Amino acid sequence: MTRCAVYGAGSWGTGFAMILGDAGCEVTLWARRAEVVQAINTGRTNPDYLPGAQLPDSVTATTDPAEAARDAEFTVLAVPSQTLRDNLARWAPLLPSDTVLVSLMKGVELGTAKRMSEVIEEVVGKAPGGAAPDDVRGRVAVLTGPNLAKEIADRQPAAAVVACVEEPVAQRLQTACHTPYFRPYTNTDVVGCELGGAVKNVIALAVGIADGMGLGDNAKASLITRGLAETTRLGLSMGADAHTFAGLAGMGDLVATCSSPLSRNHTFGTNLGRGMTLEETIAVTKQTAEGVKSCESVLDLARRHGVDMPITETVVGIVHEGKAPLVALKELMGRSAKAERR
Question: How far, CA to CA in Å, does 335 sit from each of 227, 329, 331?
Answer without folding.
Answer: 15, 10, 7
